[in-house]
Design goal:
alpha/beta; Rossmann fold; five-stranded mixed beta sheet
Length: about 300
């Protein structure tokens, strides 16, 4: 069951489903200036949006989340409204939300149309690249109509931007030290079949921010399938593999064996990393930093 959930999540990443023309959230006219609204009821239809809500201190207003919302741990205890691609409209209506949080590339358009017909407001989160994260988090914070939450979001994004600046400076430092040409790399988000992160994704941004050339950037798909032969032909210097919840030690061993002929394997540059880059939220910066730290060490 867990494996099916992860496969579905990856398919959602590979197949954008939303075509929203704009956020339809409108500020509550009854809110008095200078006062926070503490009775707002919000449903999140994506794991990254749930994570952001917790990060900015808005978790008390979350009355419903998806089956995929598993971070932080407390999110698992929230009322469930179904999957990202198959949320239950009935479950959402039962929770009587004032606003529903949706992603621009992960929830079905049909749900948006139904919510609109029921006059349930939506806020569309549009960050699909690293550069847009901070601005979109700040926009989302305003949904909660709380000065404290807005201030929390401002503090969070300032830290994110500061950390990102440090990553860029470290990358520039490597260039100055003679590493002018970017090393070739691939980030595999799934192991069977082999699926890589391609151009126009947060992971692609992360590789470039750490001065690496993504060998999957020429693919037409954002998350293309990659044959073992193609990886061997490109012969990357670094191979990063995101470890999902269902990734076992046995599967890790099998994958290492398949990739043993690559330059990355021979030089000890295959790294199994966290899934922080899978979700467009606060932990993305930590995920980029994790890649950067891998460049100066050998894998175990």
């Amino acid at each position: 069951m867990l494996l099916k959930k992860w496969l579905l999540l990856l398919l959602l990443l590979a197949s954008p489903l939303l075509f929203y023309q704009g956020a339809v959230y409108a500020k509550d006219k009854g809110k008095e200036k200078g006062k926070d609204r503490d009775n707002l009821r919000v449903v999140s239809l994506a794991p990254n949006l749930t994570e952001i809500a917790y990060a900015i201190g808005a978790e008390e207003m979350l009355v419903g989340v998806t089956d995929f919302c598993d971070y932080p741990e407390a999110a698992k205890k929230k009322e469930k409204v179904g999957g990202m691609a198959t949320p239950s409209l009935e479950a959402m209506v039962r929770l009587k939300p004032h606003v529903v949080l949706v992603n621009s590339d992960g929830n079905p358009k049909e749900i948006a149309n139904k919510l609109k017909s029921l006059k349930i407001k939506m806020h569309v989160f549009r960050a699909t690249r690293v550069a847009a994260l901070s601005e979109e988090i700040l926009k989302m914070a305003k949904v909660f109509q709380s000065e404290k939450i807005t201030a929390n979001a401002l503090e969070l994004t300032k830290k994110m931007e500061s950390d990102l600046k440090g990553i860029k400076e470290e990358s520039a430092k490597r260039k100055r030290q003679g590493n002018v040409d970017a090393k070739k790399a691939i980030f595999l988000i799934w192991h069977s079949p082999l699926i890589a992160a391609g151009k126009g994704t947060i992971i692609d941004d992360a590789l470039k921010l750490t001065h690496l050339k993504n060998i999957a950037e020429s693919s037409l798909s954002s998350y293309p399938r990659f044959s073992l032969e193609a990886i061997l032909r490109e012969n990357p210097d670094y191979i990063f593999i995101g470890k999902g919840h269902s990734f076992s030690i046995a599967e890790e061993s099998v994958l290492r064996e398949k990739l043993k002929a690559t330059k990355a394997a021979k030089q000890g540059k295959i790294f199994f990393v966290s899934d922080r880059l899978y979700r467009a939220g606060p932990r993305v910066i930590e995920g980029i930093s994790e890649l950067g730290k891998c460049l100066g060490q050998n894998s175990s």
